[in-house]
Specification:
- Helix content is 33%, strand content 34%.
- The chain has helices at residues 11-17, 27-32, 47-54, 102-112, 143-165, and strands spanning 20-25, 33-43, 58-59, 64-68, 71-75, 78-79, 96-99, 117-127, 130-140.
- A hairpin with a 2-residue loop joins β4 and β5 (71-75).
- It is globular, with a radius of gyration of 19 Å.
- Residues 1-9 have low confidence and may be disordered.
Length: 166
């Protein structure tokens, strides 16, 4: 029996084998911000919130992260209510605590105080059954930078189409 070569595996298969299931990505963040630094951290959730996340009922619109007293909090993220939960259901938009090492929190907190930089959520996923949030320190892009990134993305798409035809 022939062995499969490693070159045939794609990104989804490797993510699935590593126990990672992506719930949502914040595409608007990479368009509006230049990401300077990334950090994976845990998030404190209630049971009904986890069930809603597994259903994919989440919105990153207008969400951001603040550092208060050496603790990180996620503000503005909407996790819809879980239909099967009864009176113990969660509130869709409330402040959620993020879990990370103190030195990482202080480093991001000091960096976010610089004018024009903010901490934003990039991706929410389950890793080995635990909910993780990928956050990034971002600097706002100017309008001409956004246009430039659109042109680059369009050029890359056209290049892929041409390469595919040969």
């Amino acid at each position: 029996m022939a062995k499969k070569s490693k070159s045939n595996t794609n990104a989804k298969e490797t993510a699935a084998s590593a126990g990672i299931k992506t719930v949502a990505t914040n595409k608007k963040a990479t368009f509006d911000y230049e990401i300077l630094e990334k950090l994976e951290c845990g998030i404190v959730l209630q049971g009904s919130e986890v069930k809603s996340l597994r259903d994919g009922r989440i919105s990153f619109a207008d969400s951001y992260i603040r550092v208060i007293n050496d603790e990180m909090f996620l503000l503005g993220m909407n996790i819809s209510e879980y239909n099967m939960a009864n009176r113990q259901n969660h509130h869709p938009v409330h402040t959620r605590k993020l879990l990370a090492h103190k030195r990482e929190i202080r480093k991001l907190g000091m960096a976010s105080e610089i004018k024009g930089q903010t901490i934003i959520p990039l991706k929410l996923y389950f890793k080995d059954g635990r909910c993780k949030l990928l956050i990034g320190l971002g600097r706002g892009k100017a309008v001409y930078d956004k246009r430039e990134s659109l042109k680059k993305k369009d050029f890359d798409r056209q290049k892929q189409r041409i390469m595919k035809s040969y």
